[in-house]
Amino acid sequence: MTLTQLFGGLATILAVISYLPYLRDIWRGKTKPHVFSWLVWSILTVIGMLSQIVGEAGPAIWVSAITTLLCLTVLILAIKQGETKILPTDWLSLVGALVALGLWFVVKVPVWSLSLALLTDLLGFFPTFVKTWYKPNQETLSTYALNGLKHTLTLFALDRVSFLTAGYPVYLIIVNIGFVIFLIWRRKTQRV
Fold first, then answer.
1. Using CA atoms, how far apart are residues 36 and 43, in angstroms rounded to an integer?
2. How confident is the model at residue 48, as a pLDDT?
3. Do the beta carbons of residue 166 and residue 155 sit within 8 Å?
4. Pick from 135, 137, 175, 192: CA 20 to 30 A from residue 107's CA?
């Protein structure tokens, strides 16, 4: 077993563990995932996974594959039990995700597609960000914290480091840790 395989395996296990509290909280009605955020993220995790496949990322691809399946699982649950209030900006994030996916298949320039996917992912976070501003207790903090750690481990699972292989994990580390800080801050300020 190589070191990249070890880190890939650990990050993949952590991916599953990180979503268990989130799935549990959705089931209990405590967490209300925003359906559009998870739709956009499901599309974009496919692009991230494809980028890693094209870039020959090695075992880091395992993490992207399981994360894609977990995002799709949350999306299905969000349709039934999540936040479904759709704003005009939510449509913008969906269009961006679809354009990024189209760029991948039509233009076949993975760097452009991944770049647009990163921007779109940030837009896709907007519905969850707005919802969390008003309802900070409807998100599971541990999932985002563990996802930050998972993506950090993913960097050590890369066989080849390039924008295509490392861009999405680095972005996700920043966004997940940033969201954890925001979530803690909103929970504290809401109590005051």
1. 11
2. 85
3. yes
4. 175
The pTM of this model reads 0.83
CA–CA gap between residue 128 and residue 131 (Å, rounded): 5
pLDDT over 70 at 192, yes or no: no
The one-letter amino acid code at 94 reads: L
pLDDT in tens, 72-126: 999 999 999 988 888 887 888 788 778 877 777 787 778 887 888 888 888 778 8
Q: What's the pLDDT at 65?
A: 96
Number of other residues whose CB lies within 10 A of the CB of residue 138: 18
* Structural domain for 91, as ranges: 3-191
> DSSP per residue over the chain, as a string?
--HHHHHHHHHHHHHHHHHHHHHHHHHHTS---BHHHHHHHHHHHHHHHHHHHHTT-TTHHHHHHHHHHHHHHHHHHHHHHSB----HHHHHHHHHHHHHHHIIIII--HHHHHHHHHHHHHHHHHHHHHHHHH-GGGS-HHHHHHHHHHHHHHHTT-SS-SHHHHHHHHHHHHHHHHHHHHHHHHHHHHH-
